[in-house]
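Exam revision sheet. Question 4 asks you to relate a sequence to its structure. Input first:
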Amino acid sequence: MNRGDYMLIDLSEVLSEPHKPLDVTAACTMRTFQGKAGVYPVVPEEDAHITAEYRGSGKLLINGECRLKVLIPCDRCLKEIPVEFDLNFTKRVLVSEPEEDSGQTEEYDEANYIDGYHLDVDKLLYNEILIGWPMKVLCCEDCKGMCSVCGQNLNEGTCDCEDPGLDPRMSVIRDVFKNFKEV
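Answer key, structure tokens:
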């Protein structure tokens, strides 16, 4: 994630008396997404809309929505594909210890995007992109991939390379399949 320029939202009015709700539209300043497999360009489609409301006993409810695209290489041919992320999320966060122990065990979201009285919008969006990251990205369902010898994108044309992985003893079976395709 690009940390040179990031958006912080001040939560001091939400977290302190009289707990004024927050409703803000913040520019998505994230320009890259860094995952384990590499760095991917991010193209914001619209600004992030964030609301935050104090729910008592150290609980904070955060809602957000944002639409952006991440340019991810096709898993077969490596052509960059704009993958749209239409983020719409609700986070229940515990920002301080509850004032009373009610005996109920409620589930709270991890809040690594809140530091003191500030909410890091890019870190929040980063987490949501990570959750929605696709298992496989293809430029089209019938992507032919790349030639393993010369690297030619086989969707854009063929190459003159012979497939070194073919066993010459399988040529009879290969001919049967070629004849079957011609019918």
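Marking note for examiners. The two ends are 53 Å apart (CA to CA).
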